[in-house]
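Quick one:
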Amino acid sequence: MHDLVKYSGYDCATAQNAADGFDMYLREKPEVIVCNIIMPGISGLEFLQKIRQIDRHTIIIMITSVSSERLAVDALRLGANDYLRKPLQDNDLIPAIKRAGSRINLDEPISQYGEIDSGTMVLKFNTDINAPRLIVDRLMDELAPDYFESEARANIEIGLSELVTNAIEHGNLNITFEEKSEMLKNFSLEDLYSKRLKDKKLANRKVTVEYSFSPEKCEWTITDEGNGFDPTKIPDPLADENIESLHGRGIFFSRHLFDSVEYLGKGNIVHAVKICQKSVC
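Output:
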């Protein structure tokens, strides 16, 4: 992991345990921390709490295993900005660090010429392999920097990423949860994307996002052109019998990251709401 991060152009330091990591944090004051949830001695959650008691701005990415998936929920509640699931792939860690970089220094001053107070916009996106990241980046660009603290913005980005990815993969490309799980095991999810995109009917489908904002709340309505699904039949990913399955994971975490998540129509429309928390709201 250290070599991969260094090779990608980032300064990187490592610690063998949470105690050493906290001492290193105090010395180095890094912008991004990547930490295992389960460690000997001080746990990753305890480490996270210690950091958050004195620092709400450093981006913290937690790493979890299948058996500690439930702890990832606790980590998000305690202020983690993101989490990654083992076994890590090369294309997991670096994109997460890049996303973290986009969250740094978000508390920009309000323009002296004033800003738009409220409004609505509708955006349409093509379906392709890079669509989820591009869509979320575009939506985050539209999010007024003074509406949310950096932690809430990070949660919005994670939640939108989950919902948009579901719209692209399970909606427009008709990729089932079973197919995705199998492809992830074989590190061949991109191959499945490419195969589906050869079908012009699927490739021509769009994702439509209606975004409305005011000083009180922000709302996103994401519509795909797939066949839909029954959200009441999605299993609880934290139930013992489902703990090793990805089925329902994105929906579950999105419900914890937004104040409200509701599926409409035939299941191909999802409406998410986040209440503003900063004093200007």
